[in-house]
């Protein structure tokens, strides 16, 4: 029995794993090639391979940047708003704020318990429909529904006393059903999907209108907004400044990150005091001469080479021109030295800064001695030890560099 066992043990059993012999392994390593992979008796290396046979079913999802497939989105489990969220709230309160509370159902909050609410803030929730607010109509003046899931503006019929409405960061495509909110002074519709400036004609008391990060291509239908003071239209698809001639009180225009090439239409708003027009396609400042009341101008990140056009702007206080093509210190002095109220300039990223970074700030300071700030650096203040030390360092650097 023992002999038979030993004979069986001595027989070579079939190998489950093939190993390369030392000689071949050394040879492969010497040539810089990888060693043979480990395999079983059938040649399998233990890796599961699946054929790549994915098929694209909807080509529009890749070809259309504005494509939305909301119809095929399966809703997740909805967590209803908990009415107990307000159980500890004072029934006489004028201010209710429930931010980031996963509220999806406004009626479940039972807001009719509160008879004196002036301001309601339901920011950053999952609200899809505006409803359950009618009982607040007599008193509420401010409604904030920023960052929710609202697609259509409805349910505001009884909120006739609203002065401030914020529907930013939702999914709104059209400005509708707010024509009766004639007391509105501030309207925020930032980062929606709005493509046309409609539905605003009756809001004649508006002072501030913010429509940044939408899909607007043309400025129009604003003629009735005679009291508008601030218009924010950054990050849209606007190619031309127009439609502003009948806005006699407009003081601030923000139109960054669009496709503007010409400033001459701004002569229609000579009362303008602040202009923010960075990240556009400007190559010159021609056309800005008529806007003599401007005190803040931001032209950063354009392709401007000359400061000609700033001469008549005697009230200029802040001039931001970073990342353009400005390279002439003599022109900087010629156009800006007579601006007595000028306190801040930004020229970083221009050739005049990139060519001589060590001398740049001192040259600007000598050309414009009235300044208090160059880029992010505050200039010398006799009452500040820190600024005095900084100025001494700059002076030493200037002497060494020259």
Automatic annotation (TrEMBL):
Ranges of residues in domain U2A'/phosphoprotein 32 family A C-terminal: 357-375
Stretches of the chain forming a coiled coil according to its record: none
GO cellular component, one term: nucleus
Ranges annotated as biased composition (Basic and acidic residues): 1-30
Single GO MF annotation: protein phosphatase activator activity
SUPFAM superfamilies: L domain-like (SSF52058)
Keywords noted in UniProt: Leucine-rich repeat, Repeat
TM segment ranges: none
Name the UniProt record assigns to this protein: U2A'/phosphoprotein 32 family A C-terminal domain-containing protein
Biological source species: Pseudomassariella vexata
């Amino acid at each position: 029995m023992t002999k038979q066992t030993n004979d069986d043990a001595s027989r070579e059993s079939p190998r489950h794993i093939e190993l390369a012999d030392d000689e071949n392994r050394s040879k492969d390593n010497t040539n810089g090639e990888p060693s043979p992979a480990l395999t079983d008796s059938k040649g399998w290396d233990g890796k599961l391979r699946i054929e790549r046979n994915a098929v694209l079913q909807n080509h529009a999802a890749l070809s259309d940047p504005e494509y939305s497939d909301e119809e095929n989105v399966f809703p997740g489990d909805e967590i209803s708003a908990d009415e107990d969220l307000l159980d500890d709230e004072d029934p006489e309160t004028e201010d209710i704020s429930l931010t980031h509370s996963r509220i999806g159902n406004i009626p479940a909050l039972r807001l009719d318990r509160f008879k004196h609410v002036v301001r309601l803030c339901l920011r950053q929730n999952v609200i899809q429909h505006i409803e359950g607010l009618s009982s607040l109509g007599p008193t509420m003046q401010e409604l904030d529904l920023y960052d929710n899931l609202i697609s259509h503006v409805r349910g505001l019929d009884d909120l006739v006393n609203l002065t401030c409405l914020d529907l930013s960061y939702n999914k709104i495509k059209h400005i509708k059903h707010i024509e009766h909110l004639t007391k509105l002074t501030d309207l925020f519709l930032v980062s929606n999907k709005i493509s046309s400036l409609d539905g605003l004609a009756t809001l004649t008391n508006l002072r501030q209108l913010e429509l940044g990060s939408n899909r607007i291509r043309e400025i129009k239908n604003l003629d009735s907004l005679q009291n508008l003071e601030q218009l924010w239209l950054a990050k849209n698809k606007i190619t031309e400044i127009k439609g502003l001639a009948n806005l006699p009180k407009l003081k601030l225009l923000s139109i960054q990150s669009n496709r503007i090439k010409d400033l001459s239409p701004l002569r229609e708003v000579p009362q303008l005091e602040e202009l923010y027009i960075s990240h556009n396609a400007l190559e010159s400042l021609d056309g800005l001469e008529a806007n003599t009341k401007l005190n803040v101008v931001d032209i950063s990140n354009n392709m401007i080479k000359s400061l000609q056009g700033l001469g008549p702007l005697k009230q200029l206080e802040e001039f931001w021109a970073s990342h353009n093509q400005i390279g002439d210190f003599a022109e900087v002095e010629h156009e800006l030295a007579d601006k007595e109220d000028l306190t801040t300039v930004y020229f970083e990223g221009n050739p005049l800064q990139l060519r001589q970074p060590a001398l740049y700030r001192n040259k600007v300071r000598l050309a414009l001695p009235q300044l208090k700030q160059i880029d992010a650096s505050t200039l010398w203040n006799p009452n500040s030890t820190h600024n005095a030390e900084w100025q001494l360092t700059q002076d030493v650097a200037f002497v060494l560099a020259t």
